[in-house]
Amino acid sequence: MDMSYGLFSDHSAEQGIIQRILPTQMTSVDNNVVALVGNPNTGKSTLFNALTGLNQHTGNWPGKTVTSAFGRYMHNGKSFFLVDLPGSYSLLANSPEEEVARDFICFGRPRVAVIVADATCLERNLNLILQVLEMIPQAVVCVNLMDEARRNHISVRLDKLSQILGVPVVGTSASSGQGLTELKQAVDDLVCGRLIPEPIRIQYDSAIEEAIAIVEPAIKIMMGRSIDSRWLALRILEGDDTIIAALRKFTSLDVMGSEEIRDRVEQAKKKLAQQQIFENDLRDRIVFTIVNSAERISREVWQHNGDWRKRADRKIDEVLTSRLFGIPAMLLLLGAALWISIVGANYPSKMLANIFFWLEKRLSALFILAGAPDWLRGALVEGLYRTLAWVVSVMLPPMAIFFPMFTLLEDLGYLPRVAFNLDYYFKKARAHGKQALTMCMGLGCNAVGVTACRIIDSPRERLIGIITNNYMPCNGRFPTLIALSAVFVAGRAGGMQPILAAVTVLGLIVFSIVVTLVASKILSCTILKGLPSSFALELPPYRKPQIGRILIRSLLDRSLFVLLRAVTVAAPAGLIIWFMANVSIFHTTLLNHCAGFLDPFARLMGLDGYILLAFLLGFPANEIVIPVVIMSYMSGGAIIELDSLQALRWLLEGHGWTWVTALCTMLFSLNHFPCGTTLLTIHKETGSWKWTLISFIVPTITGIVVCSVVVQAARLLRLV
Amino acid sequence: MERLAIPLNILPVGCVGRIKEIRAEGNVRRRMMDLGLVPGTEIEAVLRSPSGDPTAYHIRGAVIAFRSEEASKILVEMTGKLW
User: Fold this and answer.
1) Cβ of B65 and A537 within 8 Å?
2) Which of A75, A142, A469, A490 could cross-link with A449 by S-S, CB 3.0 to 4.6 Å?
3) Would you call A424 and B27 a contact, using CB atoms and an 8 Å cutoff?
4) Phi then psi for B80, rounded to 5 degrees?
């Protein structure tokens, strides 16, 4: 039903990865490529990190690994190249991600495939294991999350499983590193040929086996050992065109170009048709056989003793998704995270500001001492350095506190519950429920949120997710909201301050969610017409997050990331502002010219020219919007020391700000064009400038409309 | 004994059914079967979202949510028995 909109036709980014891998592998002999496949949420990424020592972030929601990751590890003096493929339930290519995984196993020529399975949910995972074993005999089954299984009184008979499957089976607990050495050893055994796998062969019913027997020999002659001929025969018989296209693309072999094969396929299909088995029935029978085999095997090797394992989980879920508490609990959790950020950010913010401004004075003195000209000191210290100091001291602390907490919720497995709670509204907006997950990612960084939209299969709904992702305030905009609400909403409320500020920011986020839904609905009725597609969302069991790792990583990674952006973006912006404020044309500074030019338009939205200019200058990174506003106001002459929120309020009020200005600034911050990085990501993901432009225009128009309405209403009601 | 088959979306929360037939077509059908939803599979409705839709089901050890549109394409017989 979905049109393709001429996009996502071949998942260029992903396919590119495979094409990049192929040559590296061919050129170096000692490159032992190991592919990591598995169902979503089996701890595949944790295993990848544990093996390679890399820090790919893992989260407890299906689809976290949307791009393949690569890394290396050493074992027995040999180097192994590990490729983490996107998690999938099946390799029968229902979605682009599954196609990537399938193509890599077929054509990336991994020496070994490590199939990661969840010990607590082995039966479902066996489905994929059996599918992979049909494609590649060189495989190790890694039964992960053994610790969690033990805790839930589940036992898995690994040696029995190995005996049935005919390949090595290793039990691991990736988060504690248990079993990794054995896993590496098993991989090495296969690579060296010390171990010859004899993978289980699934027997289909006699009609299918007959059809395979007709087609397979001809395929074997053509393909040799490059691909499992039995597997390929099945795919051709069930009418899977994607594999034929992939073959042409990666091996330049046109399997259906052979008359012999075509004839035999024809013959086999006729025979099947005589028994009333058509392509669709064949497909059903194949899946049915695999699922049943999985069930049978699971029964032999998997056992849970005692009470059903999900009881505790279910009790929690019954509260967190209940009619009464589901949505309030969500708001409470988010509100609490915001409140802690606001309270906690105060002290480090103050401390950083003190350090920076102490250093500023010393720097200034140094310049004077060195006899540097005034303009140089001004440009470097008051322009470049001060903006940098502002970005770091005001923007960094709330981020450094909020995001570890958010990551905690993510690792616990709470995000899929958010999607579950909100799906109904997304359905009403004719969008996809997983859009809620991509919005959560957008809270961290919109570019990440846009990439996460790959978890949405339908191209139409995916575009909606991409275009609307920017409504969620990212990393760089959060502190703007926090600072302004702390100054203007809570500044007058005494002891209740942080709570009021948190409630304000929470309200703004809820508003953003509503805007997202309305915009999605409008898009669904206009340029992206269509009905909601199918929806299946796994609610994974809650998992104990690795708190230490989260803290260290998000602190270090985030802080480093923010600092880097501060240096690359805020510093030059500070320099530009300083020059604009100090270079005069016709007795007015350049800054005033620009601000004056923007002013009439900005006033319509309840802003002023300087604020709008700051948003424009903030295009490369939203973090600098408030610092630029401050710089522009301070360049007016009165240099005051801004060492507290109180001082910030005086400065802003001195330039005519009211609570309406603050509100409009916050609203415009939520609803305006995405930053440069996000737009580039949108272009990369959609492969189209048209949709990139639309992603620019849609939120900007929203912002203009929302702010104008607010300011007009405030004026009409004489609230200002 | 022949039991009455009902669409999955009306299976009450807490009840178990056995899949009789999947009426979905194409990719949706495929996706469902990949999740282990084949005739004969036991399925339990476990959670309903605050707005009444979607509903999460317990299928072969995993919990998976479907919207009522999808669930209505799966026919189940009530077995009544709890896990």
Assistant:
1) yes
2) A469
3) no
4) 75, -40
Cα distances from A263 to residues A111, A218, A269, in angstroms, run 34, 10, 10
Q: Which of B28, B33, B53 comes nearest A534 by C-beta? A: B28
* Calpha distance A161→B41 (Å, rounded): 22
Q: Indicate yes or no: CB of B65 within 8 angstroms of CB of A122.
A: no
DSSP letter assigned to residue A115: E
* Single pTM value for the model: 0.85
Query: Can you tell me the distance from the alpha carbon of B75 to that of B23, in angstroms, rounded to the nearest whole number?
Result: 7
Distance CA A345, CA A337 (A): 12
Q: Give the amino acid at A356.
A: F
Question: B9-40: per-residue pLDDT in tens?
Answer: 999 998 999 999 999 888 888 888 888 899 99
Strand B55-59 to B42-48 pairing:
antiparallel
ipTM: 0.93
Which residue of chain A is at minimal alpha-carbon distance from B38?
A: A288
DSSP A320: H
How far apart, in Å, are the Cα atoms of A62 and each of A146, A174, A452, A689? 19, 17, 11, 30
Dihedral sign (CA A402, A404, A408, A411) = positive
Do β-strands B62-66 and B55-59 pair in parallel, antiparallel, or remain unpaired? antiparallel
Q: Please tell me if residue B65 touches chain A, with a CB cutoff of 8 Å.
A: yes
Q: Which residues of A touch B63 (CB under 8 A)?
A: 310, 538-541
Using CB atoms, which residue from B38, B47, B50 is nearest to A288? B38
Pairing between β-strand B5-7 and β-strand B74-78 as defined by DSSP bridges: antiparallel
Across the strands, what pairs with A80?
A32, A73
- Please indicate whether, in this complex, the C-beta atoms of B54 and A537 are within 8 angstroms of each other: yes
Spell out the CATH class of B5-78: mainly beta
The predicted-structure confidence for B60-75, as pLDDT tens digits, reads as follows 888 999 999 999 999 9
Q: Which residue(s) pair with A115 in the sheet?
A: A37, A141
Tokens encoding A647: 């001082």
